[in-house]
């Protein structure tokens, strides 16, 4: 109970502390980017109001780009920032210290990114003014965005704890290679990526006619809840691994030798 | 209070702390050593932030690594000013109290009391980014004191404080000691430690060189040649005179007109040098003890430790 309370204390503190002009600018920038792209394409005469197009476009732009960028910025350096800012020794000597701090900061990163992604989704819908199926598809994308934030957030926090230096570079490299390339390989290996399960959930929750026919070969016949459970399981594994490593890790700011 | 049994800490192939064994009863101790001597590594081992490569550490009868019960009883003030610049001193201390397990009301009350104790009440609502060095030191001390720990571990706590601030903090620490609670206070400045406690541990090169009261340390140094630096008109003539008087253990010339004398009889040199040079035409421009610097003291102890003296 005490640990849960500490997680909430860290979440509240980090959300208040994050309320800076730089953070707001980054959030607004992320939120406007898909809408701006959609509006640009629409003004260029592209049929972006067609459900097959806008759903696919925003599935790529919001859960895959906005969420990933936000989490790279806010989830990957959660521990590294404390170590580099030399604030870690003050936190690590608290009885409710290391793991609640990790989880609280993870949740704060998820909250900030989800806010940017939800705002991005709302603005994008306004920008492209979909012709049909907007409400159902928007709800599906809202759920996908939320799951994407939770799962990728845990993955990037895990990266941040495992690799204190160059965590962001490694996370970007991992994302490009595994999440953007391997997840599209029609083999067993793609099931280990977050993107594969998000894609399957999106396809299963949307009406069949909105799923592009070429995507069928990259989908799995398992029921939707199996993908949702796998995503939540991956999240739990990433966070547990990060917490275990953090508990064992000796994080010192300046070895005096 | 603290037991270290043959504790060694390696950073790769670099030794941070080298085979330290010590047992400290409840009380106040000054950990004295030059910069880079291993003080912070030793404190990190005691607070459980580092694990020893070899040996064992026990603090308040418990191993410190990831020990929640022990952390409740420790107050730690690290050397670095790792403060969030956009957060007020009050919010920061209160946040740390919440992480200590106190409810909101209790955390606020403890924060206010501790901040008042370190004299930061007027500035507690200001952002820490605008604090002076002395204010940061005070707020750091407040977060270490606020939960009422049994053992206070401070790493260079008086850095950056003005003379009045130093006096106030010294008095605060003396009051802490009088209350019967433990204190371990690391510093590289001898008089800072001496003003708070007379129990010393001297550390250099990761080794515990000496421990005891200030008198015991001075006795230990009695056998070490005392270095006197003399700047004069004719150093070679002065050197001959000093050799004739039989007070010389070692002699060396440093630059033009400066002689460094090693002697076991510093009082004789200081007392009789005017008579020795009277009528010789040697003019002494400057006379000072090289051993005034803490580094010289540690060099002497390190020589003893290595069996060189």
What features would you describe in this structure?
With 257 residues, chain A is mostly helical. Chain A is built from 10 helices and no strands. Chain B has 309 residues and is of the alpha/beta class. Chain B folds into 2 domains: 2-212, P-loop containing nucleotide triphosphate hydrolases (Rossmann fold, 3-Layer(aba) Sandwich), CATH 3.40.50; 222-306, Alpha-Beta Plaits, CATH 3.30.70. In chain B, helix 3 packs across helix 4 and helix 4 (104-117) packs across helix 5 (133-145). The interface between A and B is large, with 34 and 41 residues.
Features:
heterodimer; A: 257 residues; mainly alpha; 10 helices; globular; B: alpha/beta; 2 domains; four-stranded antiparallel sheet; 11 helices; elongated
In CATH, the architecture of the largest domain in chain B is: 3-Layer(aba) Sandwich
- CATH homology superfamily of the largest domain in chain B: P-loop containing nucleotide triphosphate hydrolases
Helix content of chain B: 25-40%
CATH-assigned fold name of the largest domain in chain B: Rossmann fold
Largest sheet of chain A: none
Rg of chain B, Å, rounded: 24 Å
How many strand segments of chain A? 0
Q: Please, what is the average pLDDT of chain A? A: 88
Supply the number of helical segments of chain A: 10
Helix content of chain A: over 70%
Looking at the chains present, what oligomeric state does this protein adopt? heterodimer
Largest sheet of chain B, in brief, is:
6 strands, mixed
Tell me the structural class of chain A: mainly alpha
For this structure, what is the CATH class of the largest domain in chain B?
A: Alpha Beta
């Amino acid at each position: 109970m005490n640990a849960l309370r500490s997680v909430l204390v860290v979440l509240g503190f980090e959300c208040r502390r994050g309320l800076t002009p730089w953070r707001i600018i980054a959030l607004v920038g992320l939120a406007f980017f898909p809408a701006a792209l959609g509006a640009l394409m629409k003004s260029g005469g592209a049929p972006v109001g067609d459900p097959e197009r806008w759903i696919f476009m925003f599935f790529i732009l919001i859960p895959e780009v906005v969420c990933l960028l936000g989490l790279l910025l806010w989830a990957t350096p959660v521990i590294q920032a404390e170590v580099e800012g030399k604030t870690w020794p003050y936190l690590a000597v608290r009885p409710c210290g290391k793991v609640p701090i990790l989880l609280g900061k993870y949740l704060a990163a998820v909250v900030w990114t989800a806010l940017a992604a939800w705002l991005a989704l709302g603005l994008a819908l306004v920008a492209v003014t979909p012709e049909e199926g907007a409400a159902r598809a928007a709800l599906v994308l809202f759920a996908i965005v939320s799951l994407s934030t939770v799962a990728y957030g845990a993955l990037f926090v895990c990266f941040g704890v495992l690799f204190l230096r160059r965590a962001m570079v490694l996370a970007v490299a991992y994302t490009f290679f595994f999440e953007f390339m391997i997840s599209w390989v029609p083999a067993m290996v793609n099931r280990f990526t977050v993107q594969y399960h998000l894609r399957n959930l999106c396809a299963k929750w949307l009406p069949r006619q909105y799923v592009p026919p070429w995507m069928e070969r990259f989908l799995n016949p398992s029921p939707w809840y199996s993908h949702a459970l796998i995503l939540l399981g991956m999240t739990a594994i990433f966070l547990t691994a990060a917490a275990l490593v953090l508990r064992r890790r000796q994080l010192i700011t300046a070895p005096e030798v | 209070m603290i037991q270290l049994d043959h504790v060694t800490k390696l950073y790769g192939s670099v030794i941070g702390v080298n085979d330290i064994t010590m047992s400290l009863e409840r009380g106040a101790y000054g950990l004295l050593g030059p910069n880079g001597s291993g003080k912070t590594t030793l404190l990190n081992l005691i607070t459980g932030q580092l694990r020893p490569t070899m040996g064992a550490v026990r603090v308040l009868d418990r191993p410190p690594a990831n020990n929640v019960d022990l952390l409740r009883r420790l107050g730690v003030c690290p050397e670095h000013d790792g403060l969030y610049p956009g957060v007020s001193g009050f919010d920061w201390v209160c946040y740390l109290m919440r992480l200590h397990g106190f409810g909101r009301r209790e955390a606020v009350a403890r924060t206010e009391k501790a901040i008042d104790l370190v004299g930061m009440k007027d500035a507690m609502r200001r952002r820490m980014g605008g604090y002076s060095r002395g204010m940061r030191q005070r707020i750091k001390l407040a977060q270490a004191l606020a939960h009422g720990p049994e053992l206070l571990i401070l790493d260079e706590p008086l850095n950056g404080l003005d003379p009045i601030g130093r006096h106030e903090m010294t008095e605060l620490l003396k009051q802490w000691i009088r209350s019967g609670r433990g204190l371990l206070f690391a510093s590289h400045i001898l008089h800072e430690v001496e003003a708070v406690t007379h129990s010393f541990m001297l550390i250099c090169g990761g080794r515990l060189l000496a421990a005891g009261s200030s008198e015991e340390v001075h006795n230990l140094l009695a056998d070490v040649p005392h270095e006197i630096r003399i700047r004069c008109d004719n150093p070679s003539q002065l050197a001959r005179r000093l050799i004739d008087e039989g007070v010389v253990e070692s002699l060396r010339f440093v630059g033009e007109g400066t002689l460094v004398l090693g002697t076991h009889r510093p009082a004789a040199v200081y007392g009789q040098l005017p008579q020795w040079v009277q009528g010789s035409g040697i003019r002494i421009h400057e006379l000072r003890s090289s051993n005034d610097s803490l580094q010289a003291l540690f060099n002497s102890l390190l020589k003893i430790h290595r069996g060189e003296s």
